[in-house]
Amino acid sequence: MITVIGIFADPALAEQAADYLLANFFERENVDVHTDSEGEAETDRVGEFFTHLYDDVDAASHYASLARQGTVITVHAASTREAQEAVDVFNNHGAAEVNADEGRSLTVEQVVPDERRLKGH
Question: What is the pTM of this model?
């Protein structure tokens, strides 16, 4: 399983990206949309999500900080091809640049347990 993460500063662009994914053969159960507007409990959830994906505390903190400022879409892809399609959708729909090395989306070859996924708006 490959987890692809797009962080969007503009919630409307995030919604367009999610709609495009769902209209183009991505299964709803493999696409999560999360906007951190739920308060501090949700902030901890965002931090836990990135800490699960990254052993590097600084990297996890960096990505969590970006995610708290916008909308996060995660795609749980079954193949490299599907992951690349998600990356292309994120790039084409205005995902925020996360850093010079990663570009506009993050791809992590790791399964995210259901209880750690960022589900819901």
Answer: 0.85
